[in-house]
DNA sequence: CCTTGAGCTTCCAGTGACTGGAAGCCCTAT
DNA sequence: ATAGGGCTTCCAGTCACTGGAAGCTCAAGG
C-alpha cells in the first residue's frame, strides 16, 4: 500500500503519517522506487493511533499504549494506569474550562453589546469590580 | 519600574513580558542603561493581559481587546462579539472533552487492571468491539 | 578598588503535534 | 513526449511561551 491509500483507510493525513514515521511510531518498509510500502499491520497501527489520539492521548501515551498493545506479556494494570491518568487530566481541563465559561458567560450577559463604549467585560479585565452594579444607571433591556 | 517589579505586581513572568513586548502588546520605554522602564499604564496593560489570558482568550483576541480598551469610541458590541465567539469555542472544547471523558471512563471501568494482559481499553483502540466476548478474531497480518 | 551576586540584556532553541509549501522524482495515460 | 497526479525530502511556521547561555549593570561588602 502506498501512503495515499493508507491515509484514506486510516483517516490519518499523509503528512501526519510521515510525521509518525519520523518520530518512530510506525516503520513502513520501502519499495524499490523509494515509496513507503505499508503492510496491513502498519495500517492497523495507524488506525489504533488515530483512535487513541481521538481520545486525547498524547503522542507519548500513544507510543506506550502501542507498545503495550504489542506486548503479549503486558499487564492490563499498566494500560489502566495510563488511561486513568489521562482521564484525570481531562477532568482537570474540563473543570478549568468550566470555570472560564462561568466567568465569561456572566460577563457576556452583563454586556449590552450596543454602540456605546461602556462595557463590563473590559471593566472586569481592567481590574475593576464588574459584578457591582454602580448606581449610575440602568442597563438597557 | 524594572521588569522584575512589574512581573511581581502583574503576576506575569519576566520572560513572558519580554515576549509580549516582542509581539507588540506592550511598548515599555528604556532607561539609559538599556533596562526596560515600565510606567503604571504598562503595568495596567499587563494585568489586563493576564486576566484576559486567564479567561482563555488567544493572544490575538487579547490584542484586539486591548485596543478596544484603549479606544474611547469603541462599541461594546465589538467586545461582546469577541467574548461570545470565545465562549462558544470554550463550549465546543468542553463538549469535545466530555465526549472523550465519557468514552474513556467507560473503558477504564471495564478494565480490571490486574496482572493479566486482557484489556478492553486496548481492544477498543485496536478497533474491536469492546463489549464482545473474545472470539479469537485475529485480523490479517 | 575589587568582588560578589542579583538583576537585567539579547539571542537561540525547544515544546506538541502537526501543517503548508517548495523542489523534484516516479508512474500512468494519452 | 508530455501532462497530471502521487510520491519524496527538507524547511519553516503554528501557539504561547520557556529554558539556557553569554554578557552587561548595579548595589553592597571587604
Automatic annotation (TrEMBL), chains A, B:
Keywords: Cytoplasm, DNA-binding, Plasmid, Transcription, Transcription regulation. GO terms for molecular function: copper ion binding; DNA binding; DNA-binding transcription factor activity. It comes from Roseobacter litoralis (strain ATCC 49566 / DSM 6996 / JCM 21268 / NBRC 15278 / OCh 149). GO terms for cellular component: cytoplasm. NCBIfam families: CueR. The gene is hmrR. Its main location: cytoplasm. Residues 1-68 form the HTH merR-type domain. GO terms for biological process: positive regulation of DNA-templated transcription. This is HTH-type transcriptional regulator. It is found in: Cytoplasm. It holds the Pfam family MerR.
Amino acid at each position: 500500500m502506498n501512503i495515499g491509500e493508507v491515509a484514506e483507510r486510516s483517516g490519518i493525513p499523509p503528512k501526519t503519517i510521515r510525521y509518525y514515521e519520523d518520530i518512530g511510531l510506525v516503520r513502513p518498509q520501502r519499495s524499490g522506487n523509494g515509496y513507503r510500502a505499508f503492510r496491513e499491520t502498519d495500517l492497523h497501527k495507524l488506525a489504533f493511533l488515530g483512535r487513541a489520539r481521538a481520545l486525547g492521548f498524547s503522542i507519548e501515551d500513544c507510543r506506550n499504549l502501542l507498545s503495550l498493545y504489542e506486548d503479549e506479556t503486558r499487564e492490563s494494570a499498566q494500560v489502566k494506569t495510563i488511561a486513568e491518568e489521562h482521564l484525570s487530566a481531562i477532568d482537570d481541563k474540563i473543570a478549568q474550562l468550566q470555570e472560564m465559561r462561568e466567568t465569561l458567560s456572566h460577563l457576556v450577559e452583563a454586556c449590552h453589546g450596543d454602540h456605546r463604549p461602556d462595557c463590563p467585560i473590559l471593566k472586569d479585565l481592567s481590574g475593576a469590580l464588574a459584578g457591582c452594579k454602580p448606581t449610575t444607571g440602568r442597563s438597557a433591556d
